[in-house]
Design a protein that fits this description.
Elements lengths: L12 H19 L11 E6 L5 H12 L3 E5 L12 H9 L4 E5 L3 H9 L5 E3 L7 H15 L6 E5 L4 H13 L2 E5 L8 H4 L6 E4 L2 H5 L4 E4 L11 H7 L7 H5 L6 E4 L11 H4 L6 H22 L3
Bound molecules: phosphoric acid mono(formamide)ester and norvaline.
């Protein structure tokens, strides 16, 4: 059975912890200028049906640094956007590449690709999950503060794909997650259902952030929700992460955002450009975490 990464739930706790350790090691090797090419002459296929800066660049650079190459496949200039069955695309790409990254609207599409692929498929963001971002975020926490076990994380904003991935991480790595959303924007009930009581849902950002070790937010209008933007700006009034809200967190609290960020909406410039913010460490860590992920999946699948 080919192993894929469609959500963090495709990994065990132990595998995630080891992957983060390995990412730190790979980061050190890179800074020492050590050549390490486990993908030599190998190709990484990258199907992107939505925009991207960080995910695309970090996977392309990861493939280059691993001695291979990344092939960007946009729907408009391939048959992916012309109705060729994903099953056929999966078979073709599996015969020539070592792994496939896919960013798409519906999670069902990336799952469908994985069902027909002989090489690992990595979810580079779907409407439900963004697991690669979480690996980078966890790595960033570990570098700044150590273990995530038992910490209090506050999610403020939309119950979206990033929120869902934080919920997965909370269960796998055993930390508390308080999620504050406006009524009607809560995360999927199945994803946050947690019989060990780690995940709490509230509608008041202060109730989530009070005493938190880490405060996380994301855009109020994700890709594909552009037409809802104005309605969302109104619905999310009072959910901006600003200095006053951050003051209610633990005095040592960090701030995270997966980027791209919209200053003045989900977060103020003072917070995202301020001393508690680690957003650019998160962005850089996409590269190191995904190199560890690629190495793991290639090895697990004997490639
Ligand atoms: N955080 C993130 O996934 O960024 P991109 O949309 O730029 O890839
Ligand atoms: N929730 C955002 C994340 C972007 C990286 C989106 O899906 O657009």
């Amino acid at each position: 059975m080919t192993r894929h990464l469609l959500s963090l739930n495709d990994l065990t706790t132990r595998e995630i912890v080891r992957m983060l350790d390995r990412a730190i090691e790979l980061k050190k090797m890179l800074s020492r200028g050590e050549l390490y090419e486990p993908m030599r002459n190998g190709a990484l296929a990258m199907i992107f049906e939505k925009s991207s800066t960080r995910t695309r660049v970090s996977f392309e650079v990861a493939a280059i640094q691993f001695g291979g190459n990344a092939i960007f496949i946009a729907p408009g200039d391939s048959h992916v956007g012309r109705g060729e069955p994903l099953a056929d695309t999966a078979r073709v790409l599996s015969s020539m590449t070592r792994a496939i990254v896919m960013r798409t609207h519906s999670h069902e599409r990336v799952s469908e690709l994985a069902r027909h692929s002989r090489v690992p498929v990595i979810n580079g963001l779907s409407d439900r999950f963004h697991p690669c971002q979480l690996l980078a975020d966890l790595l960033t926490w570990v570098e700044h503060r150590g273990s995530v076990s038992g910490i209090n994380v506050a999610w403020v904003g939309d119950g979206n794909n990033m929120c869902h991935s934080w919920a997965n991480a909370s269960k796998l790595l055993d930390f508390n997650l308080r999620i504050a959303t406006p009524a009607g924007y809560e995360p999927d009930g199945d994803i946050v259902a947690d019989d060990r009581g780690r995940i709490t849902l509230v509608n008041d950002p202060r109730a989530a952030v009070d005493g938190a070790d880490l405060v996380v937010t994301d855009t109020w209008a994700s890709m594909g929700q552009e037409e809802e933007k104005q309605a969302r700006v109104e619905a999310f009034a009072g959910f901006t992460v600003d200095d006053a809200l951050m003051r209610t967190a633990h005095s040592d609290a960090l701030f995270m955002h997966c980027l791209p960020a919209y200053r003045g909406y989900e977060v103020t410039a003072e917070v995202i450009d301020g001393p508690r913010s680690v957003v650019f460490d998160q962005a850089e860590n996409r590269l190191h975490a995904q190199k560890a992920l690629l190495e793991f999946l290639l090895r697990e699948n004997g490639r």
